Amino acid sequence: MAADDKIMHELVVAEFKDSLRKKYGEYTLHYIDKNEKEHDLALISTLERVGLVDFKTCEELLKCEYYEITECDESCGNCFLAFKDDSNRGNFNDFNLGLYGAIYDVDKKKFITDFRYCHVYEKHEDRIKVANYNAGSKSVLYGFINSDGEEVVPCKYRSALDFRKGSAVVFNDWLRESGLIDKNGNELLPLQYSCYDFYIDKDLIVFGSHMPEGDTLYGVFNRKGENVIPCEYKKITYKHKSGYIQATKYNDEIEIFDKRGNKVSLVLKENEKLQQISQILQTAQTAEQKLAEIEKLIGTSTYKLEKVEELASKNPTAKQPKRKN
After folding, report:
1. 3-class DSSP state of 47
2. Residue 102: per-residue pLDDT
3. Contacts of 51 (CB under 8 A, 6+ apart)
4. What are phi and psi of 160, to 5 degrees?
5. In 10 A of CB 182, how many CB atoms?
6. List of residues 6+ apart from 206 with CB closer than 8 A
7. Nearest CA to 168 among 245, 229, 100, 224?
8. How many C-beta atoms lie closer than 10 Å to residue 157's C-beta?
9. Domain map of the chain by residue range?
């Protein structure tokens, strides 16, 4: 901006501030951090209400008639959540309970939702998680909107995780009512599972299936809701170093799978598994050789401990694994 233009703009801003003072009386300004260098946007506060002004264009975007205005996460764009009144707030002080806000888009200069949300989260894969306070049940329910403010997944879940690779984990009770939805809210997995562990290497999710006798058996599902490893195990563990999935049965025997659900090895007792698996992985010198040795055991049958010991004994110089105290 040229010097003369800058001076002219400062005069216009000063005049605009005077007009605000005549309209509202004394007020305070809180400049928005995302525009800190130019101080374009600012929240204007009176004793009772708050609004939003743009000093770049000298416009009053939102009049001083809102109970509260908060910034949305920067991933949502240049948006704010404005709460019009607090008549339903009651005795709740946290999480904006009892307040109903609408999302205002500064770039579009309009509200893109109606007044129904108490919180707005980050945007992932063009889906923004939102929370709605249900005054009747006195509970917070979660759903998702798109970038245009359209509610593509209704606020009906007790909790929800962000979208990843086209799907999101949602649950009403993470122990018994967890499932998986796509970006339009269609159920890829019905809400009848236990969410044991959210992710395995970003692509896979561990869910548990409830048995009539009361036990929960866990398996692995991909992001499409397809069952990669059946729900037959009491525990699922992902071994980051080797890239394999370890599944433990209720009789303490374990089986090893790759991330495609192919059985790699071995039926081992719980108290022997770490040492013996480590011996196999250390039989060869390179990662390719280690993988080749393990994949020799892939087949329709599972191998007993003796097979592992036989493979490990072929390399008498193999280092013994270090034990953790």
Report:
1. coil
2. 95
3. 43, 44, 60, 61, 62, 63, 64, 65, 66, 69
4. -155, 145
5. 17
6. 195, 196, 197, 198, 200, 218, 219, 220, 221, 236
7. 224
8. 25
9. 1-66
| Encoded tokens for 9 | 């703009």
Cα–Cα distance measured from residue 320 to residue 281, given in angstroms and rounded to the nearest whole number: 11
Contacts of 109 (CB under 8 A, 6+ apart): 61
Name all contacts of 279-285 with Cβ < 8 Å and 24+ positions apart. 279/308, 279/312, 279/318, 279/320, 279/321, 280/308, 280/311, 280/312, 281/242, 282/318, 282/319, 282/321, 283/311, 283/312, 283/314, 283/315, 283/318, 284/315
Cα 60 from Cα 214, distance rounded (Å) = 61
Return the structure tokens found at 95. 């999480």
Task: Please report which residue ranges of the chain form alpha helices under DSSP H.
Answer: 3-24, 273-281, 287-295, 305-313
Rounded distance between C-alpha atoms, residue 107 and residue 92, angstroms: 33
Q: Whole-angstrom Cα distance, residue 68 to residue 92?
A: 15
Integer Cα distance of 135 and 90 in angstroms: 10
Instruction: Please choose, from the candidates 30, 146, 135, 130, the residue with its C-alpha nearest in 3D space to the C-alpha of residue 89.
Output: 135
Per-block mean pLDDT, blocks of 10 residues, the chain (325 long): 76 93 93 65 93 94 94 92 68 56 95 93 96 82 96 94 93 85 96 76 85 84 93 86 84 87 62 55 65 51 42 45 42
Task: Provide CB contacts within 8 A for 276, sequence distance 6+.
Answer: 266, 268, 305, 308, 309, 312
The residues that bridge with 207 in the sheet, in sequence order, are 195, 219
Do 89 and 97 touch, CB atoms closer than 8 A?
yes
Quote the pLDDT of residue 124.
95
Half-sphere exposure of 3 (CA within 13 A, CB side): 0
Tokens of 294: 């393990």
Q: What is the pTM of this model?
A: 0.74
Beta strands in 50-100 (DSSP E): 50-54, 59-66, 68-71, 79-83
